[in-house]
Amino acid sequence: MSFLDDNREEVARGARAVIVCPTFRSRGGSADPDARLEEAKGLALAIGLVVVDALLVPIREARAGTLFGDGQIQNIAATCEMEQAELVIVDGALTAIQQRNLEDKLKRKVIDRTGLILEIFGERAATAEGRLQVELAHLDYQAGRLVRSWTHLERQRGGFGFLGGPGETQIEADRRMIRDRMARLRRELEQVRRTRGLHRSRREKAPWPVIALVGYTNAGKSTLFNQLTGAGVMAEDLLFATLDPTMRRIRLPGVDKAILSDTVGFISDLPTQLVAAFRATLEEVTAADVIVHVRDIANPDSLAQKRQVLEVLEELGLVEGEGGTPRVPIVEAWNKWDLLPPDRAGELSEQIAAHPDEVIVPLSALTGQGCEELLTAVAKLLTSGARPHEFVVPVGDGQRLAWLHAHGEVVADEDGGEDDRGPLRRLTVRLEPRELGRFVRL
């Protein structure tokens, strides 16, 4: 192992970085440039970098060799010198040639948005499945960077540790190794998908509905997951704090048992390699009975983030059309409500009242405010097919009485008189057809 390999983590965690966010004058964009710059800072902080400066650089026409013009590159280089930066992060996509030329001109390591996101994913993936998916994404990205104009390849570029040092792996050997490794990873991931399919089939046989939390990264999904389940999932104010799907059992009003799934956060311009590599993770969302879309309603770019999430859900076939008509019931959880100033909270409350056809629940995952209302809203969607049924049950039959209270919505509970079995209770209970069948078989 080389000296640079030994010190890769130290460099990665403490490197001083300048963020450069290109803004194209000729292109529209849903995200505000300042919000995009803040997001790029968040990505850098998520991997432990020290952001010493962040620049918005307007581009009229992209240069094929460097993306930026000569004057802009000189300005970036001057900022790097002044701030003693070791790393330049370009918040956009760079070709291999652009990356190489920028490194030559700036005399510093340069990574693009895709490389930075892959770096975060490589550090955060905790399960064997997550690591497989991340490695496949890394290799896919790396394969596109092997160009004959390079006499050698930095071994870590495009693989685990973009912020590490150079190795000596040759291009042709890399190509063959990458092809072989990717083929093996795809076979292993296919096995993961089959295993997930088997688990999903078992859940479908058991009458347990699945609720999936989705949302833009750092919207507060994991904090909400922990609040609802009491789990200890990593929940920090970091982008991509959660990468591996986590599932826990919860109880809802009228629903004895349901499965709550926490998923990876979505983000604008998610690398195509990751969209494909994390398909197995996102498949959990496609099996959901209800989707809870967690939004950081205190974020000024919340609406643009919502559009990004809907685009991903559309790719998964869960919404359709320009209006994002859902094929699966969706509840919007407007999180971080406690951070809103009173006038803004009043405006949003009026918006909720003006859309009674949409299920929107304001809440704070941190304090727990609104979480009970969220569970009630989800339970109503899950039991929307329930019908009222009347049962007369002996008071002494505690098991059946408890079952009805746990699995259905008890509308009425009255004295039912008495017969040879003793005192009776007359209950009117809303039950789903499958729950009714289970009760009859008790």
TrEMBL record:
InterPro entries for this protein: G_HFLX_dom, GTP-bd, GTP-bd_M, GTPase_HflX, GTPase_HflX_N, GTPase_HflX_N_sf, P-loop_NTPase
| Keyword DNA-binding in record | no
Q: What domain of life is recorded for the organism?
A: Bacteria
The subcellular localization recorded is: Cytoplasm
State the PROSITE patterns in the record: G_HFLX (PS51705)
The reply on keyword Isomerase is: no
Alphabetically list the UniProt keywords: Cytoplasm, GTP-binding, Magnesium, Metal-binding, Nucleotide-binding
A single cellular component GO annotation? cytoplasm
Query: Where does the Hflx-type G domain start and stop, copy by copy?
Result: 209-386
* Residues annotated for Mg(2+) binding in this entry: 222, 242
Q: What is its main location?
A: cytoplasm
Cofactors demanded by this protein: Mg(2+)
Where along this sequence does the record place binding of GTP?
Answer: 215-222, 240-244, 262-265, 335-338, 364-366
Which function does this protein serve?
Answer: GTPase that associates with the 50S ribosomal subunit and may have a role during protein synthesis or ribosome biogenesis.
Q: Which family does it belong to?
A: Belongs to the TRAFAC class OBG-HflX-like GTPase superfamily. HflX GTPase family.
Classification via NCBIfam families: GTP_HflX
- Subunit structure, briefly? Monomer. Associates with the 50S ribosomal subunit.
HAMAP family in UniProt: GTPase_HflX (MF_00900)
Q: What is this protein called?
A: GTPase HflX
What is the organism of origin for this protein?
Answer: Novosphingobium ginsenosidimutans
